[in-house]
Amino acid sequence: MNRSVEIESTIMVLSEMSRLYRVMANEIRLLILALLYEKQELGWSQLKKMIEKILGKQINPNLLAFHLRYLVEKEIIIRSEMNKETKYILNPGFIDKYDEILSHSIKKIIETLKGEV
Fold it and tell me: Which residues form the domain of 52?
């Protein structure tokens, strides 16, 4: 492999890792990912209740909406409407791409939260 191809490949990997870490840099986004990873599909109100239980405090609905919108825009999660309720799932493409990192990080979070979710 020629040197410029190696450098370009390394830059692409760094860019992807940076994207992932920006997504995971917020505790609410990280909890959303962990909950969706564990439960597969959750509605907006379910997510809100679970996050509030874990954090032990109320969260502003606008704050939750902001983080959910961010994750949808970054194509990390998928939003769908079912029977007038908004549901969220992890984007399978995101899981496939980052499963090793996600499963390690998120499994630790879930183990810590057992009984809370």
Answer: 26-113
